[in-house]
Every structure is written in structure tokens, then in C-alpha cells.
Design brief:
With 724 residues, this protein is of the alpha/beta class. The protein folds into 4 domains: 63 residues; 262 residues, TIM Barrel (Alpha-Beta Barrel); 197 residues, Glycoside hydrolase family 3 C-terminal domain (Rossmann fold); 135 residues, Immunoglobulins (Immunoglobulin-like), CATH 2.60.40. It is 28% helix and 19% strand. It contains 21 helices and 27 strands. The strands form 7 sheets. The chain has a 6-stranded mixed β-sheet, with helices on both faces. Strand 1, helix 2 and strand 2 form a beta-alpha-beta unit. Helix 5 packs antiparallel against helix 15. The termini are far apart. 56% of the residues are buried. Bound molecules: beta-D-glucopyranose. The site of beta-D-glucopyranose has 7 residues, from loops.
């Protein structure tokens, strides 16, 4: 290969824009392909369209190397699933895997080989708009969800034409941006990096994720796109990661903005030497690096290694043997939005809903709940229902909540939008909504954020409900009618004024194509809600970042204000809703705690199990959660860390035994030695229905310290369910 051909392989161009796919593929691009000047395109799609582009690459370029076609297929391709935070709220890796699998089947049928998903950035600051794209705040939990998504996208064999290369993104500490601002610096300790932000990436690599994307931001002044310690020493070195590393959009060029280089060529050199294999969109590798490569043996070695990794990705996908395997228009037509896919989307959406409170038992609704007023513009906002990163999702495909309730309730339904999410509320429209509420026996208030208030570059300084929604909510609540609030959101919100006495609140996130049926099925009790919060809901913006796994401090937060402790004076010490919280229409009792041993020795395991009984008269799911704490260690350990969870369906009156099996390495943390160590001593564990609803507790000992090669949070806890 010539230097230009090598650099061409490392060049990923935008073939279009997210909202105008393929729009940049013109004659000049075909010529670039013929000249071997490009290795991949993103924001392209279509089996037939891409077949022609691929044909030109394979038949008309000198080396005939196939192209990689990429897109952000994040929570569905055409059939839209809930946004990722909603998928996470299912608290079931099987749901995350299913959503990824369906997305892969549809995306690959449209000629795509590579998705920029899953996003597995830990998100602990609800101001950060991209919290919607991930699985929340907890390292063990996000790691488990990361593994499931990688499996769903990539299947067992990437060369099958319905599997897609996954991207673990955004490697580093993208979620730790200061003040919850997107792209902003992460100034975090090494311990936080290793124990909080990196475990999901370790898990994704371990699961075989074919590619990684680097974060836009810097850690302590070192932009990740040029972070040799993180990329070369850790990822390529210690972790031995052989997959493809791609920059983020223009992030090589942005090294100039970061202030670590002055010229394009210097930016390219830094990124290449940090083993960023493929450059997304800034075109520096292909346009500016030829001279530097010829002049520097060190850069040449880096380029050769990167080219090999790009070619290996193409090889893993089977493209050298069958470059057009992903380009079957008949398959594309057959799979898109199939009844089977819609059913899967509905199921995951139903399972994503979190019942925050149901104080008066208003839910589930009776089959004939009388006259119902449906209030809120979001109830009919099909675009919001499919969330950000909609790929090829179409608002027209969505069954809205309004449509479903019209069908279900007929003349007993009255609808008033009341207010939108932007600008000033219209007093007339609110008055109409109030009249509708007053005329009804029951109000369903659909409120929250629209889809465009979370997502990339959508950070907010205030996580309150948008002003017009607050106004609407106040007016509706003042009617004194029974109100069921359905919250659509991509982030934890400050729930003022909704979170009042006697409230009923269901978090629906942005549920996807099957929004209407999924919400209605939960409201009417066709299914009992079983979702849980993957991120704590702080009471107020000022509490952000808020997360469960904080350190205890020397003066742990105390509700007693007369004591000087680590808290705010003006609000309680707890979040509004804790990580793992979510109610059910059923009730569950925990009993029969058992542990297989009191001593967890090196090479051994401990199995902790409990009986969960559905004491109600309806079949429902319970999410059994296992938390641990190391009370005394060389450094302070978080007050609570997750080490197991299992969503289990338990028919009315029946019992299931849930057993978690753990290794000593799962208690390893980033010790002062710079290694992962678990100290000898006691470990406390707690089993419950939420991080703040603990039902059973116990402890065991590690008789000797253990050294591990991975963060404890990244490892898998085996779960067995007996009695099914
Ligand atoms: C985002 C990435 C995304 C890329 C390509 C960037 O702005 O940060 O997550 O994969 O664009 O669309």
C-alpha cells in the first residue's frame, strides 16, 4: 500500500448528515473512493445505494478494499425502542440485548456494518444532556448493560450479515464533564477514572466490542484523542485491546482548540501516536499527514498498526469475502418495522416504565375509568416519543398515547394539549385544559421535557420541568381531580410541582414507536410496571451531581441539622428517588437469606440467595438488587455499590429463589499501589427492592487480600433463579 492508500483507510468521511443521509455522496466522493482515499463513511444508508458505493470501492479502486458504512444506530434503526436510559430502566440485560439485536437486524439490512453504540459513559450529573444516551450512574450496572448491548449488536459471529460492529463510546471520562456541560473537562482522580468511568469499557472490551470511540473531552488537561497513557499504555497495553479506535467527530482537529497543538499536521501526529486508528470527518490523516509519515519512522509504525486494525475490522465483518453481503434490498424491505420488531419494541417499552409513586393506589386504572381528560402536548408529540438519535425512525410510524387512548376510551376521552415545552404558556390553552380536567373523573397529565432538551449539546443549568409545563401542571393539580402523571424525559428531573402528597407518577422516558400501547398497557394494568431508576433523581438541580456510590466522608450526612455534616441545609439528605427505585402493582416479601460461606477465599465463590414471594393477587416482576460495602479498607469505599440485580417474573402468590454468585475479585478496588486489590476483612451486603429499600443484610470475610487485573465493577455476577 502507498502511504496515501494507508492514510485513506484511516479516513472516515461524512457521507451525509444525520438528517440528510447520503447527501454528500457526489461524483467527487466516488472519485475519492476510486483513488483509495477513504476507508469508511458515516451517516449513509440504504442497501441499494450503498451497494453501488461498495462496488466502486471493490472494483474500481487499485486495492479493491471494501468500505465500512457506519451510523449512530442507538436505540433502534426504523423500529424505535425507548431511549437508552429507558432501556436501562428495564433493569434487564435481556431487554438491552433484544433492542440491540433488532436494531442490528434492521440496520444491517440497510447496508450498515458499524454502529456508534453503545454509549456506556457513566452519567452522574442530570444536567448533562447525554445522560439520556447511556445506562445511568452505576459502574457495575452500566458494565452489565454494556455487555448485553455488545452481544446484541455483534451476535456470535460478526461475519453474519445481520450483525453489526459495536462501538463502546466515549472512551475515557466523557460523562464527567465539569458542571454537567457537554464536551467539558473531566478533572477527576485516578481512582474515580479507574473505578467509576472505565469499568464499563473494560467490560465491553472483554465482551469483544469491535471498536471504541474516544471522548471529545480532556481529563485534567489531556484531550482523550491524544491521551497516550490512556490509549497506548492502558487500552492497547494493559488491556491488550486489538479492536478499532475511532476519533469522535472532528476531535482530531479539535486538538487545536484544546490548545495542545497549533497545526493540523501536529494534531494528526498526536492522534496517530495515541493509536486513534480512524479519524472521523476532519480529514487530517488523509490530507495533511503524508509528509510526516514519510519523515517519521515512529508515525509510520503507528500508521501501519492502525491500518491493520481497520483491515481486521473489515475482515471480522466478512467484507473481504463478501463485500455486498449487507446489501440485499429484499431483506431490507422485509425486516423493516416488521410486526415482530414492533412487538419487541412494545415489550421493552412496557418494561422500561418506572412507577415512582402511587400513593392512593390510583393505578392501575379500571377498564372503564369514566370520563378521562388527557392533558399535555407531549401526549401527541410523535417526534419526541422516538427520542434523540432516531436513525431512520419516523414520527409517522409512532402510535401516540393520544391515538391509543382514543381507541381505548372512545367518547370518554377528552384531549387538551394545554402547553408545550418551549416559550411562554398560552393562558387560554391552559384554561381549556383546566376545563377539560374539571369535566372529567380522572386526568392523565403527560408532562416533562421534549426530545430535544436532552441529548448531545443539550445540557441544562436547571433540571426543572420546562416553565410552561410547570404552569400547566400547577393549574391541573389545583383542580383537585385525581391526576395520573406520565413523565416523558431523557434525564432525571426536579419534579416540582408534581411530587406532592397523594401523587401518582409514572416515568415513561421516550418510549419509541410503540409509545401509546406501552404506556396504556401499564396504566390499565395489562402489565405491572417493573422498571427501575438507573440514575438517582435529585430533589433540586443544586444537588447535582447526585449518585448513590459516594464516599462516606468524615462527617456523613445527617438528617439532624444541628449537626455539622456533609449536606445542604435547605433540603433533606436523600434524593427524591434513589437509584434502583420503582414500584409495582404487586407486593413482594423477601425471606430465607442464605450465604454459601462466611469466608470468600481466593479461587472460591460465595453464593448469596433469598426467597422472593409475590404476596399480591397479580403476576408481576420484581427487580432483586444486591449491594455491597467494604467498611474498612486502605482508602474510603463508597457507601453502597451494586454487585448484582435480577428482574424476575413472579406469578401471584408464588415464590422464586434468586441466587447471586460472586468472586473475591469483585471486591477489588483501585488501591494506593495502583493495582486492583481487595483487602482482607469484612464485606457487608444488602439485598433489596431498591438501593433505599433494603430487606435483608449480611456479611462475610475475605480471609486474605486478593489482587485482580480488572475493576471489581466490570466483572459478571452469576444469577440463578429457582422455582420457575
Ligand atoms: C458524537 C458521537 C457520534 C458522532 C457521529 C458525535 O458528535 O459525540 O457520539 O457517534 O457524533 O455521529
Amino acid at each position: 500500500m502507498t502511504t496515501a492508500e494507508k492514510l485513506g483507510q484511516l479516513n472516515q468521511m461524512a457521507g451525509g448528515r444525520q438528517i440528510a443521509l447520503n447527501s454528500r455522496i457526489n461524483e467527487a466522493e466516488y472519485d475519492r473512493v476510486r483513488a483509495g482515499g477513504v476507508g469508511s463513511y458515516l451517516h449513509v444508508a440504504g442497501a441499494e445505494f450503498l451497494a453501488e458505493l461498495q462496488r466502486v470501492a471493490v472494483e474500481e479502486s487499485r486495492l479493491g478494499i471494501p468500505l465500512l458504512f457506519a451510523m449512530d444506530v442507538v436505540h433502534g434503526y426504523r423500529t424505535m425502542f425507548p431511549v437508552p436510559l429507558g432501556i436501562a430502566a428495564t433493569f434487564d440485560p435481556a431487554d438491552a440485548e433484544l433492542a440491540a439485536r433488532v436494531a442490528a437486524v434492521e440496520a444491517t439490512s440497510a447496508g450498515l456494518h458499524w454502529t456508534f453504540a453503545p454509549m456506556i459513559d457513566i452519567a452522574r450529573d442530570a444536567r448533562w444532556g447525554r445522560i439520556v444516551e447511556g445506562a445511568g450512574e452505576e459502574p457495575f450496572f452500566v458494565s452489565a448493560m454494556a455487555r448485553a448491548q455488545v452481544r446484541g449488536y455483534q451476535g456470535t459471529d460478526l461475519s453474519h450479515s445481520d450483525t453489526i460492529l459495536a462501538t463502546a463510546k466515549h472512551f475515557g471520562a466523557y460523562g464527567a464533564g465539569a458542571g454537567g456541560r457537554d464536551y467539558d473537562s473531566a478533572d477527576i482522580s485516578e481512582r474515580t477514572l479507574y473505578e467509576v468511568y472505565l469499568p464499563p469499557f473494560w467490560a465491553a472490551a472483554d465482551e469483544g466490542a469491535g471498536s471504541f470511540m474516544v471522548a471529545f473531552n480532556d481529563i485534567g488537561g489531556v484531550p482523550t484523542t491524544a491521551n497516550r497513557a490512556l490509549l497506548n499504555d492502558l487500552l492497547r497495553g494493559s488491556w491488550d485491546y486489538q479492536g478499532l479506535v475511532v476519533s469522535d467527530w472532528n476531535s482530531v482537529l479539535e486538538l487545536i482548540n484544546h490548545g495542545v497543538v497549533e497545526t493540523r499536521a501536529e494534531a494528526g501526529a498526536l492522534a496517530l501516536l495515541a493509536s486513534v486508528d480512524m479519524e472521523m470527518t476532519s480529514g487530517i490523516y488523509a490530507a495533511d499527514m503524508a509528509e510526516a509519515v514519510e519523515a517519521s519512522p515512529e508515525i509510520q509504525v503507528a500508521v501501519d498498526a492502525s491500518v491493520l486494525r481497520v483491515l481486521m475490522a473489515k475482515e471480522r465483518l466478512g467484507l473481504f469475502d463478501a463485500p455486498l453481503a449487507y446489501n440485499d434490498p429484499a431483506r431490507e424491505a422485509a425486516v423493516m418495522l416488521s410486526p415482530e420488531h414492533r412487538a419487541a419494541a412494545r415489550q421493552v417499552a412496557e418494561r422500561s416504565m418506572v412507577l415512582l409513586r402511587n400513593d392512593t393506589g390510583l393505578l392501575p386504572l379500571a377498564d372503564a375509568p369514566g370520563r378521562v381528560a388527557l392533558i399535555g402536548a407531549l401526549a401527541d408529540d410523535a417526534r419526541s416519543m422516538i427520542g434523540s438519535w432516531k436513525a431512520q425512525g419516523q414520527p409517522e410510524d409512532v402510535t401516540t398515547l393520544l391515538a391509543t387512548l382514543q381507541e381505548r376510551l372512545g367518547d370518554n376521552l377528552v384531549y387538551e394539549p394545554g402547553a408545550g415545552t418551549r416559550g411562554e404558556a398560552d393562558p387560554e390553552a391552559i384554561a381549556r385544559a383546566v376545563r377539560a380536567a374539571e369535566s372529567a373523573d380522572l386526568v392523565i397529565l403527560v408532562t416533562g421535557e421534549d426530545y430535544n432538551l436532552s441529548g448531545e449539546a443539550r445540557s441544562r443549568s436547571d433540571i426543572a420541568l420546562p416553565a410552561p409545563q410547570q404552569e400547566l401542571a400547577r393549574a391541573i393539580l389545583a383542580t383537585g381531580k385525581p391526576v395520573v402523571t406520565v413523565l416523558m424525559t431523557g434525564r432525571p428531573l426536579d419534579l416540582e410541582p408534581l411530587d406532592a402528597d397523594d401523587a401518582t407518577i409514572l416515568v415513561a422516558w421516550f418510549p419509541g414507536t410503540e409509545t401509546g400501547p406501552a404506556i396504556a398497557n401499564v396504566l390499565f394494568g395489562d402489565v405491572s410496571p417493573g422498571g427501575r431508576l438507573p440514575a438517582s433523581f435529585p430533589r433540586r438541580t443544586g444537588q447535582a451531581p447526585y449518585f448513590m456510590g459516594h464516599y462516606p466522608t468524615g462527617r456523613p450526612a445527617d438528617p439532624d441539622l444541628s449537626k455539622d455534616s456533609a449536606r445542604y441545609m435547605d433540603i433533606p439528605i436523600t434524593p427524591a428517588y434513589a437509584f434502583g427505585h420503582g414500584l409495582s402493582y404487586a407486593s413482594f416479601e423477601y425471606s430465607g437469606l442464605n450465604q454459601s460461606t462466611d469466608e470468600l477465599v481466593q479461587g472460591g465463590t460465595i453464593t448469596i440467595s433469598a426467597d422472593i414471594t409475590n404476596t399480591s393477587g397479580i403476576d408481576a416482576d420484581e427487580v432483586v438488587q444486591l449491594y455491597v460495602r467494604d467498611p474498612v479498607a486502605q482508602v474510603a469505599r463508597p457507601v453502597q455499590e451494586m454487585r448484582g440485580f435480577s428482574r424476575v417474573t413472579i406469578p401471584a402468590g408464588e415464590t422464586r429463589r434468586v441466587a447471586f454468585t460472586l468472586l473475591p475479585e469483585q471486591f477489588a478496588y483501585f488501591a494506593p499501589s495502583g493495582r486492583f486489590e481487595a483487602d482482607a476483612g469484612r464485606i457487608d451486603f444488602r439485598i433489596g427492592s431498591s438501593s433505599d429499600d433494603i430487606r435483608l443484610t449480611g456479611s462475610f470475610d475475605l480471609p486474605a487480600s486478593v489482587i485482580a487485573d480488572a475493576p471489581g465493577a466490570a466483572l459478571v455476577t452469576r444469577v440463578e433463579i429457582e422455582g420457575e
